[in-house]
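User: Second chain of the day. Same drill as before.
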Amino acid sequence: MKKDGEVCWTAPGSETCMAVSSTDTAPALIALGARVRLRSGAGEREVLLSDLYQNDGIHYMLRQPGEIVAEITLPALHGWKSAYWKLRRRGSFDFPVMSVAAAARLSTAGVVEEARIVLGAVASRPLVAEEAAKSLLGRPLNQETIAAAAALAARLAKPLDNTDFDMSWRKKVTAAFVTYALRDLRGDDMTSESVALARHVL
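Assistant: Same format as last time:
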């Protein structure tokens, strides 16, 4: 489909072309509320980074012809914490086959005041899990709250058959990785989970 074909070999049953967005940076920046400044000969405009992408394997970015990314800016993040977890085949220098970026601003009592959760590598764009993030608001990051948000976020994941990992398994572990990210935000010591994942034979 990208070069005059009629079949998308990433998703053969799809009427549109699909390509997995395997980026580490975009989900992490989107979770932090990043904006991007686009510049061209006609001028410049600024958009949320989350609005720059669309779920289309060919036209995956809403950047106009002639526009370049001139600047990425972040809002004031006082009181925010962020975490990024990814599933990958090798232990280093590898693209994600599923990832989770989470960021939250907590009160002194540990109650979530603002939150964002973004899934990566499970679609042709980073997916903002708005419903999952909203479910955290006004609540502490306890086991029940985290489990509910993880389940809501995992519903969005639609991994494609682009790696040697099984698609259904990658969707299934999405909830686990959201849980890891939110526990990380809570301040849990995640060393044992990180080591176990690094050493696990997949």
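Residues 82 and 103 are 4 Å apart (CA to CA).

User: Great, on to the next one.
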